Amino acid sequence: MPELPEMETYLRLLTPRVTGRPITDTIIEREKSINVPVQQWTRDVVQQTIVKLERRGKTLLFHLQSGKCLLLHLMLGGWMFYGTEKERPNRTVQVQLSFGDQHLYFIGLRLGYLHLHSASAAEEKSAALGIDPFSPQLTAERFYELLRRKRKTMKAFMLDQSLLSGIGNCYSDEICFEAGMHPQFKTENCSQGDAEKLLYMMRSVLREAILSGGYMDEPMFVGDTLTGGYSENLRVHDRADQPCHRCGTNIIMKEIASRKAYFCPNCQSKKLSNRAAAGIREEEQ
């Protein structure tokens, strides 16, 4: 599933290609991917200029000249491709926006969606999201308060979009690893120092992933050499039974908060009490 770095990569690659350009046509192959009748969609979207793109958590907003916006959530399996009809991937496209002979293809929107909203409705949809990891308002003190307020495992905390927006399964694993924190460590046991280190590592991992183009493999356009570059830098995610790059211990995969969590039992055991660590080791045997 695309997370903050993937959506930020899309934002940065798409902005110079579609902003200031009118949408000349649209094709809807799957009506469930949009939220209004096709006729209304076409009327409200075609000939509208995209004035700005904005990322909020894992979503992307296409702001139209009319004041309305398109709210995109790719969910599991969704991705985008920008190019000509000849360059179009041989994949099923649910929604298409055209900009002359260039087209933006929305692919894999079986669970995801591209919804048309008024500006106020889009704001309401975004209001439920937690604070962005890069927000200036997310100080070490506020982050510490968020951690201490909830009785959650670190994995569950990272995945809760009402607390932090944009982090999903992949980067929650990578952040916990870099912070040396076990994904089952309880947030209410965090010290101020733990919170400061976790916040620093969270931003460091996400920043590195953005600069590397995220972990998704599908290119955004022909000649795109950025998208997917971070997949080679993954330390623990999706590396079960492979040696830790840091200590050589095999990476473990365990279901935590109903999601797969990958971690190094050696590098990430320091934040657990001896009793808790012993219990977890017993479960893993």
UniProtKB/TrEMBL annotation:
Organism: Marinicrinis lubricantis
SUPFAM superfamilies hit by this protein: Glucocorticoid receptor-like (DNA-binding domain), N-terminal domain of MutM-like DNA repair proteins, S13-like H2TH domain
Cofactor: Zn(2+)
Family: Belongs to the FPG family.
InterPro entries noted in UniProt: FPG_cat, FPG_N, H2TH_FPG, Ribosomal_uS13-like_H2TH, Znf_DNA_glyclase/AP_lyase, Znf_FPG/IleRS
Catalysed transformations (reactions): Hydrolysis of DNA containing ring-opened 7-methylguanine residues, releasing 2,6-diamino-4-hydroxy-5-(N-methyl)formamidopyrimidine
Pfam families noted in UniProt: Fapy_DNA_glyco, H2TH, zf-FPG_IleRS
Domain FPG-type: 235-269
Enzyme Commission no: 3.2.2.23, 4.2.99.18
Domain of life: Bacteria
Annotated ranges, domain Formamidopyrimidine-DNA glycosylase catalytic: 2-112
Keywords: DNA damage, DNA repair, DNA-binding, Glycosidase, Hydrolase, Lyase, Metal-binding, Multifunctional enzyme, Zinc, Zinc-finger
Protein's recorded name: Formamidopyrimidine-DNA glycosylase
